[in-house]
Amino acid sequence: MADNVVDCEQRRTTMNKEQHNGSFTDHSLLIEKKKKEREERQNLVLWRRPLITLQYFCLETVIDLKTWTIKLWQRRSIVLSFLLLFVALTSLYYIEGAHQKYVLLMEKKIFWCAYWVGLGVLSSVGLGTGLHTFVLYLGPHIASVTLAAYECNSVDFPEPPYPDEIICPDEIESEATISLWTIMSKVRLEACMWGAGTAVGELPPYFMARAARLSGAEPDDEEYVEFEEMLEHAETAQDFATRAKLAVQNLIQKVGFFGILACASIPNPLFDLAGITCGHFLVPFWTFFGATLIGKAVIKMHIQKLFVIITFSKHIVEQMVSLIGAIPSVGPSLQKPFQEYLEAQRAKLHHRTGDGAAVGENWLSWVFEKVVIIMVCYFVLSIINSMAQSYMKRIQQQRYSEEKTK
Q1: Which residues of the chain have pLDDT under 70?
Q2: 246 near 237, Cβ under 8 Å?
Q3: Which of 314, 317, 315, 357 is nearest to 338 (CA)?
Q4: From residue 229, how far is each of 113, 212, 296, 300 by CA, in Å?
Q5: Largest alpha-carbon pair distance within the chain?
Q6: CB neighbours of 321 closer than 8 A, spacing ≥ 6?
Q7: Which one of 32, 106, 259, 327 is CB 3.0 to 4.6 Å from 331, fit for a cystine?
Q8: Distance of CA 323 to the CA centre of its chain
Protein backbone atom coordinates (compact mmCIF):
# COMPACT_ATOMS: atom_id res chain seq x y z
CA MET A 1 0.00 0.00 0.00
CA ALA A 2 2.79 2.36 0.93
CA ASP A 3 4.58 1.47 -2.29
CA ASN A 4 1.47 2.38 -4.27
CA VAL A 5 1.21 5.79 -2.54
CA VAL A 6 4.86 6.54 -3.24
CA ASP A 7 4.41 5.46 -6.85
CA CYS A 8 1.37 7.74 -7.27
CA GLU A 9 3.26 10.69 -5.79
CA GLN A 10 6.17 10.10 -8.15
CA ARG A 11 3.82 9.96 -11.16
CA ARG A 12 2.10 13.16 -10.05
CA THR A 13 5.43 14.95 -9.61
CA THR A 14 6.57 13.74 -13.03
CA MET A 15 3.32 14.96 -14.66
CA ASN A 16 3.61 18.38 -12.97
CA LYS A 17 7.17 18.74 -14.19
CA GLU A 18 6.17 17.80 -17.73
CA GLN A 19 3.28 20.27 -17.66
CA HIS A 20 5.56 22.97 -16.28
CA ASN A 21 8.22 22.27 -18.88
CA GLY A 22 5.58 22.21 -21.59
CA SER A 23 4.08 25.54 -20.57
CA PHE A 24 7.55 27.05 -20.24
CA THR A 25 8.44 25.81 -23.73
CA ASP A 26 5.19 27.17 -25.16
CA HIS A 27 5.84 30.55 -23.54
CA SER A 28 9.39 30.65 -24.91
CA LEU A 29 8.15 29.76 -28.39
CA LEU A 30 5.49 32.46 -28.18
CA ILE A 31 8.06 35.09 -27.16
CA GLU A 32 10.37 34.00 -29.98
CA LYS A 33 7.51 34.12 -32.47
CA LYS A 34 6.51 37.63 -31.40
CA LYS A 35 10.12 38.75 -31.68
CA LYS A 36 10.33 37.44 -35.25
CA GLU A 37 7.02 39.08 -36.18
CA ARG A 38 8.24 42.39 -34.74
CA GLU A 39 11.45 42.16 -36.76
CA GLU A 40 9.42 41.34 -39.87
CA ARG A 41 7.30 44.48 -39.34
CA GLN A 42 10.36 46.64 -38.76
CA ASN A 43 11.76 45.50 -42.12
CA LEU A 44 8.59 46.67 -43.87
CA VAL A 45 9.75 50.12 -45.02
CA LEU A 46 9.51 52.03 -48.28
CA TRP A 47 13.20 51.78 -49.17
CA ARG A 48 13.18 47.96 -48.82
CA ARG A 49 9.72 46.83 -49.93
CA PRO A 50 8.10 49.87 -51.58
CA LEU A 51 5.14 48.22 -53.33
CA ILE A 52 3.96 46.14 -50.36
CA THR A 53 4.50 49.10 -48.00
CA LEU A 54 2.34 51.39 -50.15
CA GLN A 55 -0.31 48.68 -50.53
CA TYR A 56 -0.50 48.08 -46.77
CA PHE A 57 -0.52 51.83 -46.11
CA CYS A 58 -3.54 52.31 -48.40
CA LEU A 59 -5.39 49.36 -46.82
CA GLU A 60 -4.67 50.64 -43.29
CA THR A 61 -5.88 54.11 -44.33
CA VAL A 62 -9.16 52.62 -45.59
CA ILE A 63 -9.62 50.69 -42.32
CA ASP A 64 -8.89 53.80 -40.23
CA LEU A 65 -11.34 55.90 -42.27
CA LYS A 66 -14.00 53.22 -41.87
CA THR A 67 -13.37 53.03 -38.11
CA TRP A 68 -13.59 56.80 -37.67
CA THR A 69 -16.75 56.96 -39.80
CA ILE A 70 -18.42 54.36 -37.56
CA LYS A 71 -17.32 56.23 -34.42
CA LEU A 72 -18.67 59.51 -35.79
CA TRP A 73 -21.96 57.85 -36.71
CA GLN A 74 -22.27 56.48 -33.17
CA ARG A 75 -21.83 60.03 -31.88
CA ARG A 76 -23.97 61.64 -34.55
CA SER A 77 -25.75 63.94 -32.08
CA ILE A 78 -22.42 65.55 -31.11
CA VAL A 79 -21.38 65.73 -34.78
CA LEU A 80 -24.70 67.38 -35.66
CA SER A 81 -24.20 69.96 -32.88
CA PHE A 82 -20.76 70.83 -34.24
CA LEU A 83 -22.14 71.10 -37.79
CA LEU A 84 -24.87 73.50 -36.62
CA LEU A 85 -22.27 75.56 -34.75
CA PHE A 86 -20.07 75.59 -37.86
CA VAL A 87 -22.99 76.77 -40.03
CA ALA A 88 -23.80 79.54 -37.54
CA LEU A 89 -20.18 80.73 -37.39
CA THR A 90 -19.88 80.59 -41.18
CA SER A 91 -23.02 82.72 -41.56
CA LEU A 92 -21.65 85.20 -39.03
CA TYR A 93 -18.38 85.28 -40.95
CA TYR A 94 -19.97 86.20 -44.31
CA ILE A 95 -22.71 88.58 -43.10
CA GLU A 96 -21.62 92.20 -43.44
CA GLY A 97 -21.74 94.40 -40.37
CA ALA A 98 -19.82 96.23 -37.66
CA HIS A 99 -18.79 92.88 -36.17
CA GLN A 100 -16.56 92.05 -39.16
CA LYS A 101 -13.43 93.66 -37.71
CA TYR A 102 -13.73 91.50 -34.59
CA VAL A 103 -14.40 88.42 -36.72
CA LEU A 104 -11.25 89.05 -38.76
CA LEU A 105 -9.23 89.60 -35.59
CA MET A 106 -10.50 86.35 -34.07
CA GLU A 107 -9.86 84.48 -37.33
CA LYS A 108 -6.26 85.65 -37.38
CA LYS A 109 -5.64 84.72 -33.75
CA ILE A 110 -7.34 81.33 -33.98
CA PHE A 111 -5.43 80.29 -37.11
CA TRP A 112 -2.17 81.58 -35.65
CA CYS A 113 -2.67 79.60 -32.43
CA ALA A 114 -3.83 76.49 -34.31
CA TYR A 115 -0.72 76.67 -36.50
CA TRP A 116 1.63 76.57 -33.51
CA VAL A 117 -0.42 73.97 -31.62
CA GLY A 118 -0.29 71.75 -34.71
CA LEU A 119 3.49 72.13 -34.97
CA GLY A 120 3.78 71.26 -31.28
CA VAL A 121 1.72 68.09 -31.76
CA LEU A 122 3.88 67.07 -34.74
CA SER A 123 6.98 67.56 -32.62
CA SER A 124 6.01 65.02 -29.97
CA VAL A 125 3.25 62.75 -31.29
CA GLY A 126 4.20 59.09 -31.68
CA LEU A 127 3.91 58.47 -35.43
CA GLY A 128 7.18 56.73 -36.01
CA THR A 129 9.30 59.84 -35.45
CA GLY A 130 8.78 63.35 -34.25
CA LEU A 131 9.19 66.37 -36.50
CA HIS A 132 11.56 68.71 -34.65
CA THR A 133 9.42 71.78 -35.17
CA PHE A 134 11.15 73.83 -32.45
CA VAL A 135 14.44 73.69 -34.35
CA LEU A 136 12.75 74.14 -37.74
CA TYR A 137 10.04 76.72 -36.99
CA LEU A 138 9.66 78.16 -33.49
CA GLY A 139 13.37 78.61 -32.77
CA PRO A 140 14.03 80.50 -36.04
CA HIS A 141 10.90 82.62 -35.46
CA ILE A 142 12.09 83.67 -31.98
CA ALA A 143 15.59 84.30 -33.35
CA SER A 144 14.18 86.49 -36.17
CA VAL A 145 12.10 88.52 -33.72
CA THR A 146 15.13 88.92 -31.44
CA LEU A 147 17.43 90.14 -34.24
CA ALA A 148 14.71 92.45 -35.56
CA ALA A 149 13.98 93.87 -32.11
CA TYR A 150 17.61 94.93 -31.62
CA GLU A 151 17.93 96.24 -35.18
CA CYS A 152 14.64 98.20 -35.11
CA ASN A 153 14.88 99.11 -31.41
CA SER A 154 11.19 98.14 -31.22
CA VAL A 155 8.86 95.14 -31.30
CA ASP A 156 5.87 97.05 -32.70
CA PHE A 157 6.25 95.55 -36.15
CA PRO A 158 3.60 96.59 -38.72
CA GLU A 159 0.67 94.14 -39.04
CA PRO A 160 0.42 93.13 -41.82
CA PRO A 161 2.95 91.91 -42.97
CA TYR A 162 3.92 90.60 -39.47
CA PRO A 163 4.07 87.73 -38.62
CA ASP A 164 4.58 86.55 -42.22
CA GLU A 165 7.35 89.11 -42.64
CA ILE A 166 9.11 91.33 -40.13
CA ILE A 167 9.64 94.98 -41.06
CA CYS A 168 10.79 97.81 -38.82
CA PRO A 169 8.09 100.39 -37.95
CA ASP A 170 8.29 103.84 -39.61
CA GLU A 171 8.28 105.70 -36.30
CA ILE A 172 10.64 104.50 -33.58
CA GLU A 173 10.95 106.07 -30.15
CA SER A 174 14.53 107.24 -29.70
CA GLU A 175 14.45 106.59 -25.95
CA ALA A 176 12.98 103.09 -26.29
CA THR A 177 15.06 100.19 -24.95
CA ILE A 178 14.82 96.52 -25.79
CA SER A 179 14.91 94.09 -22.90
CA LEU A 180 14.62 90.31 -22.61
CA TRP A 181 11.14 90.69 -21.13
CA THR A 182 9.99 92.80 -24.11
CA ILE A 183 11.04 90.13 -26.62
CA MET A 184 9.66 87.30 -24.47
CA SER A 185 6.28 89.08 -24.31
CA LYS A 186 6.27 89.45 -28.11
CA VAL A 187 6.66 85.71 -28.77
CA ARG A 188 4.85 84.40 -25.67
CA LEU A 189 1.61 83.41 -27.44
CA GLU A 190 3.17 81.27 -30.16
CA ALA A 191 5.66 79.73 -27.72
CA CYS A 192 2.95 78.73 -25.24
CA MET A 193 0.73 77.37 -28.01
CA TRP A 194 3.62 75.27 -29.31
CA GLY A 195 4.24 74.00 -25.79
CA ALA A 196 0.55 73.13 -25.39
CA GLY A 197 0.74 71.20 -28.66
CA THR A 198 3.70 69.15 -27.39
CA ALA A 199 1.66 68.35 -24.24
CA VAL A 200 -1.22 67.07 -26.41
CA GLY A 201 1.26 64.99 -28.42
CA GLU A 202 2.32 63.16 -25.24
CA LEU A 203 -1.18 61.70 -24.73
CA PRO A 204 -0.97 58.66 -27.11
CA PRO A 205 1.63 56.78 -24.97
CA TYR A 206 -0.47 57.50 -21.86
CA PHE A 207 -3.73 56.24 -23.37
CA MET A 208 -2.02 53.20 -24.91
CA ALA A 209 -0.49 52.10 -21.60
CA ARG A 210 -3.68 52.85 -19.65
CA ALA A 211 -5.85 50.84 -22.07
CA ALA A 212 -3.40 47.93 -21.94
CA ARG A 213 -3.43 47.90 -18.13
CA LEU A 214 -7.23 48.09 -17.86
CA SER A 215 -7.91 45.46 -20.53
CA GLY A 216 -5.08 43.13 -19.61
CA ALA A 217 -4.03 42.99 -23.26
CA GLU A 218 -0.42 43.11 -24.36
CA PRO A 219 -0.01 45.84 -27.00
CA ASP A 220 2.83 45.27 -29.42
CA ASP A 221 4.31 48.70 -28.89
CA GLU A 222 8.10 48.82 -28.74
CA GLU A 223 8.28 51.40 -25.95
CA TYR A 224 5.65 49.64 -23.85
CA VAL A 225 7.37 46.24 -24.25
CA GLU A 226 10.68 47.87 -23.29
CA PHE A 227 8.99 49.45 -20.25
CA GLU A 228 7.61 46.09 -19.03
CA GLU A 229 10.97 44.39 -19.54
CA MET A 230 12.63 47.20 -17.60
CA LEU A 231 10.24 46.69 -14.67
CA GLU A 232 10.93 42.94 -14.68
CA HIS A 233 14.73 43.43 -14.57
CA ALA A 234 14.77 46.57 -12.39
CA GLU A 235 16.91 45.04 -9.65
CA THR A 236 19.63 43.78 -12.01
CA ALA A 237 19.88 46.92 -14.20
CA GLN A 238 23.47 48.05 -14.69
CA ASP A 239 23.66 50.41 -17.69
CA PHE A 240 23.18 54.16 -17.31
CA ALA A 241 20.23 54.43 -19.73
CA THR A 242 18.16 51.86 -17.84
CA ARG A 243 19.01 53.47 -14.52
CA ALA A 244 17.91 56.87 -15.86
CA LYS A 245 14.60 55.41 -17.05
CA LEU A 246 14.05 53.72 -13.69
CA ALA A 247 14.79 57.03 -11.94
CA VAL A 248 12.12 58.75 -14.04
CA GLN A 249 9.65 55.94 -13.34
CA ASN A 250 10.33 56.01 -9.58
CA LEU A 251 10.09 59.81 -9.42
CA ILE A 252 6.70 59.84 -11.13
CA GLN A 253 5.36 56.88 -9.17
CA LYS A 254 6.39 58.28 -5.76
CA VAL A 255 5.96 62.05 -6.18
CA GLY A 256 2.97 62.08 -8.56
CA PHE A 257 1.90 65.47 -9.91
CA PHE A 258 5.12 67.29 -9.02
CA GLY A 259 7.23 64.43 -10.39
CA ILE A 260 5.45 64.67 -13.75
CA LEU A 261 5.81 68.47 -13.60
CA ALA A 262 9.56 68.17 -12.97
CA CYS A 263 10.03 65.76 -15.91
CA ALA A 264 7.94 67.95 -18.25
CA SER A 265 9.66 71.22 -17.27
CA ILE A 266 13.10 70.34 -18.63
CA PRO A 267 14.24 69.08 -22.06
CA ASN A 268 13.81 65.38 -21.39
CA PRO A 269 14.12 62.71 -24.13
CA LEU A 270 12.70 60.13 -21.69
CA PHE A 271 9.35 61.88 -21.22
CA ASP A 272 7.55 59.33 -23.43
CA LEU A 273 8.41 56.89 -20.63
CA ALA A 274 6.65 59.24 -18.21
CA GLY A 275 3.44 58.97 -20.25
CA ILE A 276 3.71 55.17 -20.35
CA THR A 277 4.42 55.05 -16.61
CA CYS A 278 1.41 57.23 -15.78
CA GLY A 279 -0.85 55.15 -18.01
CA HIS A 280 0.47 51.85 -16.65
CA PHE A 281 -0.05 52.87 -13.00
CA LEU A 282 -3.48 54.45 -13.81
CA VAL A 283 -2.55 58.00 -12.86
CA PRO A 284 -5.70 60.18 -13.31
CA PHE A 285 -5.86 61.89 -16.69
CA TRP A 286 -6.01 65.47 -15.38
CA THR A 287 -3.12 64.84 -13.01
CA PHE A 288 -0.95 63.70 -15.93
CA PHE A 289 -2.16 66.21 -18.54
CA GLY A 290 -2.35 69.16 -16.12
CA ALA A 291 1.25 68.67 -14.96
CA THR A 292 2.44 68.06 -18.53
CA LEU A 293 0.65 71.17 -19.83
CA ILE A 294 2.03 73.45 -17.10
CA GLY A 295 5.51 72.00 -17.44
CA LYS A 296 5.76 72.13 -21.23
CA ALA A 297 3.64 75.19 -22.13
CA VAL A 298 4.74 77.45 -19.25
CA ILE A 299 7.98 76.44 -17.52
CA LYS A 300 9.90 74.61 -20.25
CA MET A 301 8.85 77.05 -22.98
CA HIS A 302 10.13 80.04 -21.03
CA ILE A 303 13.47 78.27 -20.49
CA GLN A 304 13.84 77.46 -24.21
CA LYS A 305 12.63 80.89 -25.25
CA LEU A 306 15.09 82.62 -22.91
CA PHE A 307 17.95 80.48 -24.25
CA VAL A 308 17.18 81.39 -27.90
CA ILE A 309 16.75 85.11 -27.13
CA ILE A 310 20.05 85.28 -25.24
CA THR A 311 21.84 83.29 -27.94
CA PHE A 312 20.63 85.61 -30.72
CA SER A 313 21.08 88.88 -28.84
CA LYS A 314 22.94 91.43 -30.92
CA HIS A 315 26.24 91.40 -29.01
CA ILE A 316 26.29 87.59 -28.71
CA VAL A 317 25.76 87.15 -32.47
CA GLU A 318 28.49 89.67 -33.29
CA GLN A 319 30.90 87.89 -30.94
CA MET A 320 30.08 84.52 -32.50
CA VAL A 321 30.74 85.83 -36.02
CA SER A 322 34.04 87.38 -34.92
CA LEU A 323 35.06 84.08 -33.28
CA ILE A 324 34.35 82.24 -36.54
CA GLY A 325 36.71 84.66 -38.30
CA ALA A 326 39.43 83.85 -35.76
CA ILE A 327 39.60 80.18 -36.85
CA PRO A 328 43.01 79.60 -38.51
CA SER A 329 43.11 79.23 -42.31
CA VAL A 330 39.36 78.74 -42.98
CA GLY A 331 38.05 81.41 -40.59
CA PRO A 332 37.65 84.35 -43.04
CA SER A 333 36.02 82.18 -45.72
CA LEU A 334 33.55 80.79 -43.16
CA GLN A 335 32.89 84.20 -41.65
CA LYS A 336 31.94 85.85 -44.94
CA PRO A 337 28.62 84.01 -45.61
CA PHE A 338 27.47 84.63 -42.02
CA GLN A 339 28.23 88.35 -42.33
CA GLU A 340 26.41 88.49 -45.67
CA TYR A 341 23.42 86.70 -44.16
CA LEU A 342 23.20 89.14 -41.22
CA GLU A 343 23.53 92.13 -43.55
CA ALA A 344 20.81 90.70 -45.79
CA GLN A 345 18.49 90.26 -42.80
CA ARG A 346 19.12 93.82 -41.62
CA ALA A 347 18.42 95.16 -45.11
CA LYS A 348 15.23 93.11 -45.32
CA LEU A 349 13.98 94.63 -42.05
CA HIS A 350 14.12 98.10 -43.60
CA HIS A 351 12.80 97.00 -47.00
CA ARG A 352 9.39 98.16 -48.16
CA THR A 353 7.29 96.78 -51.01
CA GLY A 354 7.97 98.94 -54.07
CA ASP A 355 11.28 100.28 -52.74
CA GLY A 356 13.19 98.36 -55.38
CA ALA A 357 14.53 94.88 -55.79
CA ALA A 358 14.39 92.64 -52.77
CA VAL A 359 17.54 91.35 -51.19
CA GLY A 360 18.93 88.23 -52.88
CA GLU A 361 18.81 84.86 -51.21
CA ASN A 362 21.79 83.75 -49.16
CA TRP A 363 23.11 80.19 -49.46
CA LEU A 364 22.64 79.66 -45.70
CA SER A 365 18.91 80.28 -45.97
CA TRP A 366 18.82 78.04 -49.08
CA VAL A 367 20.50 75.19 -47.14
CA PHE A 368 18.13 75.64 -44.19
CA GLU A 369 15.08 75.46 -46.48
CA LYS A 370 16.35 72.23 -48.01
CA VAL A 371 16.99 70.74 -44.55
CA VAL A 372 13.40 71.59 -43.58
CA ILE A 373 12.06 69.92 -46.75
CA ILE A 374 14.17 66.78 -46.13
CA MET A 375 13.00 66.47 -42.51
CA VAL A 376 9.35 66.96 -43.45
CA CYS A 377 9.67 64.32 -46.18
CA TYR A 378 11.29 61.90 -43.73
CA PHE A 379 8.45 62.52 -41.28
CA VAL A 380 5.86 61.73 -43.98
CA LEU A 381 7.76 58.55 -44.93
CA SER A 382 7.83 57.47 -41.27
CA ILE A 383 4.03 57.84 -41.08
CA ILE A 384 3.60 55.69 -44.21
CA ASN A 385 5.92 53.04 -42.78
CA SER A 386 4.18 53.09 -39.41
CA MET A 387 0.70 52.64 -40.92
CA ALA A 388 1.92 49.85 -43.22
CA GLN A 389 3.43 48.08 -40.22
CA SER A 390 0.13 48.44 -38.36
CA TYR A 391 -1.65 46.64 -41.20
CA MET A 392 0.96 43.87 -41.17
CA LYS A 393 0.31 43.52 -37.44
CA ARG A 394 -3.39 42.99 -38.20
CA ILE A 395 -2.46 40.18 -40.62
CA GLN A 396 -0.19 38.54 -38.05
CA GLN A 397 -2.86 38.74 -35.33
CA GLN A 398 -5.46 37.23 -37.67
CA ARG A 399 -3.05 34.42 -38.57
CA TYR A 400 -2.40 33.76 -34.86
CA SER A 401 -6.13 33.63 -34.01
CA GLU A 402 -6.73 31.17 -36.89
CA GLU A 403 -3.93 28.92 -35.59
CA LYS A 404 -5.48 28.91 -32.10
CA THR A 405 -8.90 27.86 -33.41
CA LYS A 406 -7.48 24.86 -35.29
Answers
A1: 1-27, 30-31, 126-131, 172-176, 215-249, 253, 268-273, 339, 341, 344-365, 368, 406
A2: yes
A3: 317
A4: 40, 15, 28, 30
A5: 114
A6: 335, 338, 339, 342
A7: 327
A8: 35
